[in-house]
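protein under study:
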Amino acid sequence: MPYIKKIELKGFKSFGPQTVKVALDKGFTAITGPNGSGKTNIVDAVLFALGELSTRRLRAENAAKLIFHGSEKAGLERAKKAKVVIQFDNTDGRIPVDTTTVTVSREVHRNGQSVYRLNGRRISRTHILEVLSVAGLSSTSQNIIMQGTITRLTEISPTERRKIIEDLVGIAQYDAEKAEAEEKLRAADISIRTAMGRIDEVQRRVDDLERERNELLRYNFIQEEIKKFEAIKISHETAQIQKRVKEISTQAEKVKNKVEKLRQLREQMRNKRREIEGQWRRLSSEIVEEGGSQVLKVQIKIGEIKSKLTELTTKITSGKTSLEGLKRIRENNLQQYTNIKNEIKENRRKIKKLRKKHEEISSQIDVKQAEHDALLSETAQLWENLGENSKKIREIEEKLDEYYKKLAYLKSENAESQTAIRIRNRRLRDLKNRKEKFATNLSELEKSLFELKKVQKEQKTQLKNLEKTLERRIAQKEAIEREIAEAGKIADSAKAAVIEFVTQRELAETVASEEKALRSIEELGELGVIPGVYGRLRNLIKIEKKYQRAIEAAASGWLDAIIVKDFDAAFTCTETLRRMKLGRIKIIPLQGASNPKLTEIPEKEGVAGVAPFFIKSEKQFVPAINFVFGDTVIVSDDKTAFTLSSQGYRAVTVNGDVYEAGGAFESGYYRAPIDFSTIIPSESAIKSLDEAVKALQQHLSGRSSDISSFEEEIDRTRVEIARLSEAITTLDREIGRVKRSVRRTKLNLKRVNHIIIRLEKEIENEKSKMWTRRAERSSIQKEMRKLQKELTALRKKTDVTHIQEMDIKREKIAEEIITLRQKLGTVQTEISTLQSQFDNVLRVGYKNAKIQLAKVNQQLRRVEKEVEEALKERESLKQELTELEKNRVKLSKTVLSAREEAKKFTSQIDDIDKELRKLDAEYEQADRLLNQLQLNIQTSLLRLEQYRNQLRQFGYEQPLEVKPEQVEEAETSIRMMQLELERIGAVNQLALSHYAEQVSRYKELSLRLNELEREKQAIVQFMDEIERKKRKVFMEAFEKINDNLGKYFSKLTGGGNATLKLENPEDPFSGGIDMLVQFPRKPSIVVSGASGGERSVAAVAFIFAIKDFTPASFYILDEIDAHLDAFHVSRLADLLLEEAEKTQFIVITLKPEMVNKAQKVYGVYGRNGVSNVIAAKFLEVPS
């Protein structure tokens, strides 16, 4: 932890213009001197340098009084400014500055302006306080004990002692949180009152909607009256339709009779026609025997079919007409069915609404009745308890007075806690701002580090590339030099090669005509001139290396055979060779040639297998391999080969000796066959080589200039490498510096976070205290509200006027109950009416409409089926008629003479047919008219049924007997009622639904009110939790400080004992903290009853107990031993020596016992009004 290394004073208070230096060590330093010499001014200087603004705390009237006022005796003028410099040891880096020693200075001018510096750099007070606060250094800290503090501690009350501990643990923060919760509680109360106001507003809206609903009911009543008069009109219309149905029925009967007469007449004509046909058949019996009978049959059949076709056409036309009518009837029935169904839904909906309304009114009656009974009982009881309630009122008023006093006390306590929280919050904000700056700096540093590393990496890469380029250019230069040196050799060799190639080509062309032919065929095949050419066999196969010699020997020249697709390709190749007059070659076609079977492998030692087993190729070339090698067996030695040759096998040894079947063999020194394709250069190759020689010579002529270019580039590259190396070195140094800055910034962030956490904890503790007080205040306020509510209620109970008002209210409720019962009867009547309408009218009409619709659908399906069958039958008869007509024409040629004779009869038949067609037309017309009349009757009946249904809906089972004048009166009444509706104007058709919605809204608001009540309860619970945390934090601090007090008191007194005791252990915040002390060989007493010296010892022990609870890096103690005797001063000095191992102590003292045990001593003396400081060193005298 940082400690003070040096204090420098110049022109500060009693210190003159000469700089006074006080060098300090980490241990125990004593500063002594006579009274008035300026010892305490050193303490003031430390506070001044740490940014203290209160001149009162610095023991000065104003800032100018802090500056040296001059000394006539010493011949010193007054100083223009005062300056104090403090050096802190920052070895552990707790102060967020990148130095191991941190210098803080402050100077003040006579105009009151202060200048702050950190390590010599001028900065703002806010900044310097922020930096110091990171290390826990502040002018307001508990580590500077001013003169007179011990005296004040000896006289503090138990409550003040408790306040000291509360300030240490931040109880004010808890109280602040509790106050915030109380604000939320007040807001919740406001929300509750707001919700209650909304409920009242909704209640008024419900009342308004109830009036609108009543207007709607009146409107609906007039509509019902209009329906009654509409029923009169409908009854009149029904009578008119019945009359019209009767008239149409009479007309339909007449048409039906006419249709029957036409049918009978048509039947007579058909009978007459059959008689004539019979006569004609009798007259033509011989013709029938000769084949004319066939014509007659056809003619008869044609007549019958035509007659049947006429009947079917009539039937189809009639059926379609019926279908159209039935569809219209079905649509009407369906509309009627839908209307009845909708009316049923509306009827059930109205009944449901009315039943709900019935329940609501019943509920209201029950509530009103209960309220009436309660008021009746309450008023009777109020008259009886009038005297007793007056006595309770007096008791409650006394309790409220006590609560008001307690609230005033809590308010004053809470204000102190809020002040402490504001101070810590201000410091916390400063720290957080500093943290953000550190974080920003860290981010920028890390970004810079990343960019530097990136640049470094790029430059290193560039350096490596340049070094490689240099090596490459040097190598290229050397290569060019070698190239130039060997260029002549290469050119000469190339020229010689050209001459040699030409000679070789001439020799090869002389001795290798076969190779030339093979090359020509291959080139033509590659160019696509001869399709189906695959190439030489040796190029299409792969031979196992072990059997290479054996396979080549066994091939006997067939490895250079050309493999082609089929015989066509083979013939094309041979014809090409003939035309071009080239040599002879071997050709193997893959398709068309025989595929010989492989020779069976003889079971004999030394036999490797058939030759194709050791050759690999694509599947399509297997026939060619079998053709060449299928009869050859590969063996290991000559003996085995000879034996197999004798047995009729063709064998070859692995050394290449071939033994033909029967005993002949080919042997001797093996020479691999020469592949002329590899040694004979082409004409183009020779020409290319010649051109390459010329190009090489030209190229070499220009390479000399390249060498000088490479030398220049090498020099430039070396210069660039040197520059990059220097830049990389600079970057390395910069990266190292940035890394150190990053580490320091991270360390500073860590320290700031630690202090922020501590401050937040302190603020939390202070808030916990405030929450505790707020909870207590809330509890008191809650109890007061409860008492006030009870007081209000009691005052009402004792108010005679209020009791009389309750009686009036009860009577009013009784009247409301009567009104509600009347409404309930009206609703019950409406429900009964709607239910009767449903049971007697709508349900019956619904069933009838459903049955009628089913009948019409059934009849419609039947007629559609009949029409469809008639259409199919007519089409079939038409086809049959066509065939018969063809047969009749054909047969007519054979019976031409007979036709002449029967012409008289056929003429009569044709006349009859003509007459029949006229009758059919009249019959069809009359039948259509009959169908139309029947359709009109059905339509009228349907309309009658609809009118009857409407009447049933209006509540009438049968049409009314209506006179014409009644109809006119009904129309007049309807017009009057419509005028009445117009006069009423628009009504709220949604009044019923809106009324229900507002009732629902009323319920929702009631639920919301319940939620707000629950939220209020949660806030109260939160306040209780804060109170619990506040107590826990306080008690933990109390226990720790109590333990520390006992430890330090025992050390100071040589075995004494001191303890802290809560005045009210059940509620520690409602009482103070007593201190019980027991000096050696003395009884235990309360510290307030001890002597002044004993109280001073207890106060010092209490200070050390607090120090141990919140340790600091250094402590400045100004005359804390002033009221201690020599023994206790010596014990205190021993304690300071012991604690100095881990903490720095600077003690202002007059006691020699303290000075003698200090590790370092400074003396302060005054001369001519100027304070001076000297260092003293004492030698210990051996005992």
Q: What stands out?
A: The chain has a mean pLDDT of 80. The longest helix spans residues 386-511.
